[in-house]
Amino acid sequence: MAALTYNPLLKKIYKVCIVILTLYIFLLSIKLLGHSFKLFGKGFAETLIQMTSNPFAGLLIGIVATSLIQSSSTTTSIVVGLVAGGALNLESAVPIIMGANIGTTITNTLVSFGHITNRIEFKRAFS
Known about the structure:
- Pfam families: Na_Pi_cotrans.
- It is a multi-pass membrane protein.
- By secondary structure, the protein is mainly α.
- It has two domains: about 10-40; about 50-125, no CATH class.
- About 85% of the residues lie in helices and about 0% in strands.
- It contains six helices and no strands.
- The longest helix has about 45 residues, at about 10-50.
- The termini are far apart.
């Protein structure tokens, strides 16, 4: 590593290799995510779509999904993809997206509860 600090060419090559490696890992993780969705199977997908016909269940699915992956953008993107592919209708997608927006607040609420013993910290953490 000491040789990298003295040779600017090696430092640039090192950075390019890190970028390529990071991109490879990102693409590999997307491929693994696709394979993991295939493991759920058709039965699971049909059950999930049937559950979303109830708006309250769709809202809870959105909240739980966003809480687990901690990203409402990811949940929303998945739902938009399902609607575009025709696997989910728009009326069922709206409560899921609303649930995703609600689920975003769960992480910061849990963190703020960690500061509940000190009133000033709790007020600052909750806002």
